[in-house]
Amino acid sequence: MKITALLPARLESTRIRKKLLKKIKKIPIIIHTLNRVKLCKEISEIFVCTDSNEIKKKVQDNGFKVILTKKNFSNGTERISSIIEKINSNLIIDVHADEALLDPKNLSKLINFHKKNIHFDIVVPHKKSLSSSDENIVKIISTKKNKVIYFSRAKAPFPYRKKGSYFHHLDIISFKPNALKKFKIFKKGFLEEIEGVELLRALENGLSIGTFEINTSSFSINTEKDLKNAKKILIKDKFIKKYFDKTN
Fold first, then answer.
1. According to DSSP H, which parts of the chain are helical?
2. Per-residue 3-state assignment (H helix, E strand, C coil) for 4-42
3. Long-range contacts made by residues 130-133, C-beta under 8 angstroms, separation at least 24?
4. Per-residue DSSP letters for 81-102?
5. Of 91, 159, 94, which Cα lies nearest the Cα of 125?
6. What b/e string do you get for 80-99 counting C-beta neighbours within 10 Å, with b at 16 or more?
7. Which of 9, 58, 70, 230 is paired with 23 by a 20 to 30 Å CA distance?
């Protein structure tokens, strides 16, 4: 199967100015992410999808490909779906560009799960946690057969009768190309407008979403606190030595 990784990327972010170009160990966040995606042997090709010429230059200077998009998108799924007609692939892997701590093995796990469960239009892995207080982290509610029935920023499932685990949405997502073609024409639905989670748009329009657990300590860099933690972790990172001398 041909597998394509797409990294939606915008220059300005809400919490950290020009976040993707912030450097950790002298390497911009987005370049960390790209090099770690490249370490996944199942990935056939990688493209950054952006409207920023500044990001485009930095990405191309480091030997990666860019597809320029329009500016006005509400989220990353809208951005990558806008260029889906340019991609000829069996599976599309959406990787958030701020995944500077990404373990390439997690991409392999995602791809292999979707290959074995190809009845799902979309697959979103999760990690188990006892905490649910952060509204920036989307929680997944699913069936015993790994089918997602809801996404929420709230404390869900709510511990009304007993305490339970929470399942945090990871920022690597596998799509069948046709699912992105459909998403491209879907309009925002009632639930997405409330929760601000774009994959609710897919659920509201009948697409099938699967999930499975990945035991991982990686996280997206969303806040200054995340950035500080990432800097500490990457000092001892086992993957960085594989690309540190090859970056600009």
1. 29-38, 53-61, 76-81, 104-116, 177-185, 190-195, 199-204, 224-234
2. EEEEEECCCCCCCCCHHHCEECCEEHHHHHHHHHHCCCC
3. 130/165, 130/166, 131/166, 132/156, 132/166
4. HTTGGG---SEEEEE-TT-TT-
5. 94
6. bbbbbeebebebbbbbbbbb
7. 70
| Cα–Cα distance, 184 to 79 (Å, whole number) | 9
Q: Which two tokens stand for residue 218?
A: 């990686």
Tell me the per-residue pLDDT of 1-42, one tens digit each, with 9 for 90 and over: 999 999 999 998 777 889 999 999 999 999 999 999 999 999
- Cα-only R_g, the chain: 17
Taking each continuous run of H as one helix and of E as one strand, the counts in the chain are 8, 13
User: Which one of 2.60.120.10, 3.90.550.10, 1.10.20.10, 1.10.10.10 gives the CATH number of domain 3-246?
Assistant: 3.90.550.10
Phi, psi of 237 (to 5 degrees): -65, 140
Q: Which of 140, 105, 94 is nearest to 214 (CA)?
A: 105
Pick the closest to residue 46 from 32, 57, 35 (CA basis): 35
This prediction's pTM: 0.94
d(Cα 166, Cα 132) in Å, to the nearest integer? 6
Domain ranges, ordered by start, for the chain: 3-246
Beta bridge pairs of residue 47: 6, 65
Structural contact between residues 245 and 199, judged by C-beta atoms closer than 8 angstroms: no
How far apart (Å, rounded) are the C-alpha atoms in residues 49 and 65?
9
- Tokens describing residue 83: 């260029």
Indicate if the pLDDT at residue 51 is higher than 90: yes
Query: Do the Cβ atoms of 151 and 166 come closer than 8 Å?
Result: no
